[in-house]
């Protein structure tokens, strides 16, 4: 859960200030909600995006994200520095400048997403001890196993349209998996952006990985994913959990009906 920048201990703020030549302004991110601190810091020597964590699981997650981000070229923001002080882990990254893309039907931003996804789909996972599909998602199919770099949380708030292309933030869930898993996890967000399940699938079918598995496998994936979010929605009052339950549910229902 987000905290306010003012809750950071002075020792941490001082260390950040030293790295940016004195803090002029701090602007909390308006999207996302997991990282405890996620803010643009304007310093006299430039701007940096700062993520920081203090509680056990958040620190573990940010540590994982730091390792993942450093292991992957171009797609994630470059890590500029990091330090640990007063129980906080603090990471300063390249500030990616631009809006989030619009993934609604016929949006021109979908062409930029295609370019980034094509490149991601052709990138092997870096060497390391990354999430397996089962570890990441809590359900498993043998076909989910693979060697591709899978971000696994591609959604508008984790995408930034920069002058150099569509870049991807929030690598806390980076997974080593089959390439189609990335596409299957994007279906829910395309649906959430206004695509019908059929239109979402039609867009995803342009990627060769989509047809690398049989329809039965996609049926099983959609059903297990929807069941997972239905359980989560029953235990949560967060709007985004209920949205995901609805979107994954509509994809699973469509696949169930289509066959
Ligand atoms: N390097 C970056 N440059 C610019 N904005 C960023 C950067 N990293 C994250 N953001 C913004 O901050 C938001 C929250 O960061 P994110 O890494 O997605 O954390 P979380 O979703 O876990 O809270 C993102 O939705 C994005 O808008
Ligand atoms: Mg995010």
Q: Could you list some keywords that capture this structure?
A:
globular, binds magnesium ion, five-stranded antiparallel β-sheet, Aminoglycoside 3'-phosphotransferase, Chain: A, domain 2, 2 domains, two-stranded antiparallel ribbon, alpha+beta, 259 residues, binds adenosine-5'-diphosphate, Phosphorylase Kinase, domain 1, 8 helices
Can you walk through the features of this model?
- The protein is an alpha+beta fold.
- It has 2 domains: about 90 residues, Phosphorylase Kinase, domain 1 (2-Layer Sandwich); about 150 residues, Aminoglycoside 3'-phosphotransferase, Chain: A, domain 2.
- The strands form 3 sheets. Strands 1-2-3-5-4 form a 5-stranded antiparallel beta sheet.
- A hairpin with a 2-residue loop joins strand 7 and strand 8.
- Helix 5 crosses helix 8.
- It starts with 9 loop residues before the first helix and ends with a helix.
- Bound molecules: adenosine-5'-diphosphate and magnesium ion (MG).
């Amino acid at each position: 859960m987000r905290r306010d920048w003012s809750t950071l201990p002075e020792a941490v703020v001082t260390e950040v200030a030293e790295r940016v030549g004195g803090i002029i302004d701090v602007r909390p991110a308006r999207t996302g909600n997991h990282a405890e601190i996620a803010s643009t810091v304007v310093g006299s020597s430039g701007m940096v995006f700062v993520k920081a964590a203090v509680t056990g699981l958040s620190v573990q997650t940010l540590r994982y994200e730091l390792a993942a981000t450093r292991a992957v070229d171009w797609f994630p923001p470059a890590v500029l520095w990091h330090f640990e002080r007063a129980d906080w882990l603090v990471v300063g990254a390249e500030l990616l400048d631009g809006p989030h893309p619009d993934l609604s039907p016929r949006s021109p931003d979908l062409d930029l997403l295609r370019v980034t996804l094509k490149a991601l789909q052709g990138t092997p996972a870096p060497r390391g001890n990354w999430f397996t599909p089962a570890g990441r998602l809590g359900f498993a199919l043998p076909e989910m196993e693979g060697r591709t770099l899978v971000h696994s949380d591609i959604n508008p708030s984790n995408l930034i349209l920069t002058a150099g292309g569509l870049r991807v933030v929030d690598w806390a869930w980076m997974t080593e998996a089959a390439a189609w898993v990335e596409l299957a996890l994007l279906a829910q967000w395309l649906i959430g952006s206004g695509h019908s399940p059929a239109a979402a699938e039609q867009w995803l079918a342009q990627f060769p990985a989509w047809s690398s598995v049989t329809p039965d496998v996609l049926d099983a994936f959609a059903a297990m994913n929807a069941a997972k979010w239905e359980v989560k929605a029953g235990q949560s009052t967060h709007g985004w959990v209920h949205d995901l339950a609805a979107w994954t549910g509509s994809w699973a229902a469509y696949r169930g009906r289509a066959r």
